[in-house]
Amino acid sequence: MFLNSIKPTIVIAGAGFGGIRAALDLNNAFKKNPNLAKKYNLYLIDQNDHHLYIPAIYEIAATIHDDAKIMKLKEAVALPLEKIFLPSDPIKFHQAKITKIDIANNKIILNDHASLKYAQLIMGLGSDTNFYNIPGLKKIALTLGNLNSAIKIRSTIEKKFCENLKTKKIIKIVIGGGGVTGVELAGELTGYIKKLNKKYQTKIKPYLTIIEGQKDILPGFDFKMVSWAKKRLGKLGVNIVTGDLIEEIRFNSALTKSGGRFDFDILVWSGGIKPNPIIETLPFEHDKRGRIAVQENFCPVFRGGDKTCSNIFIIGDNCCHLRHQTLPQTAQMAIDQGAHIAKIIWVGIKKKPWPKYYPIHNNYILPIGGKFALADLGAIKAKGFLVWVLKEFVFLDYLISILSFPQALAHWFKAVRLFIKND
Question: Which residues contact 281 (CB under 8 A, 6 or more apart)?
Answer without folding.
Answer: 100, 101
